[in-house]
Amino acid sequence: MSPKLTELLDLAVTGGPAAAPTAPAEQPSITYTTSIDPAFTIGPKVHGGTMQMIIARAASRAFDDLAPGSPDTSLHAADLVPVAIASDYLAAPDPAPVQVTATVRKRGRTVTLLHVDLAQNGRTMVSSSVTLARPDSGPSRHSSPHVLDGLAPTPAADALRIADSPMADVIHLGAALDTALDTHSFPAARGQTGDPVVRGWCRPKGAEPDADFAVLVCDISPPVVMNLAVFGWAPTVQLTTYIRREPAPGWLRFAATSLEVGPGMFEEDHLVVDSTGAVVAQSRQLALIPAGVSAR
């Protein structure tokens, strides 16, 4: 990983293991802390996918740190991925230290369920349920055509590099990862409108992608409503991410789409495939139309 990603995911234990205050004694909890660099912000606030990535890492760490009592002592976090992460966004934290508390709700031989809260200054910012399980591997039983079919495994020559565009003034992630947009599916960059579909490529700087990074990529696209000439901060209400398998080396390709853009809310789905074309992650979020935008 890039130094900034490595530092971000280097969680320090600050409390626990202990019984969670609001849970039975058999549901232990542990608290970690990390400091979020301004590189992981959209405007002044922390990027939502970055917070989910931290939450996923905390759940994996807690699986090992709270290992006593495991029904399968041969299973370790390295064998698992966060196959499902459901996050409710309660407030938007600043780039500063955060505390992440993970509580084991169920530890099983197939899946383990944890509750994870990300807090800042004593206030819960994101509350999540994380399911850990073994990832898929090998060929799929069935694959349907999808929106990323035909997009090359590496950025096209005319791809819009976010770090080299005016969007870098708002999207600050370029210090930790490389992101390029398919210009043909982002007419907003040309001052035009089109369907709420954005495709592109993403990878960590100086490293290969892993399952943790795929979590971040499931929230990497600019809001698809920009293609409808709707601009501004679109706050995430809820985001659910599924990690299907560990990605192969190389660029991850992503597509963000929306079926229904309402006057006040819209859903945005991410599909993420690796360099081989295998589906590695999917997500759906419910977001708010930027404040001050009127329905037409």
TrEMBL record:
Q: Which domain of life is it from?
A: Bacteria
Q: Which residues form the Acyl-CoA thioesterase-like C-terminal domain?
A: 165-289
Q: Which InterPro entries match?
A: ACOT8-like_C, Acyl-CoA_hotdog, HotDog_dom_sf, Sec_Metab_Biosynth-Assoc, TesB_ACOT8-like_N
Residue stretches making up the Acyl-CoA thioesterase-like N-terminal HotDog domain: 39-132
Q: State what protein this is by name.
A: Thioesterase family protein
Species this protein is from: Gordonia polyisoprenivorans (strain DSM 44266 / VH2)
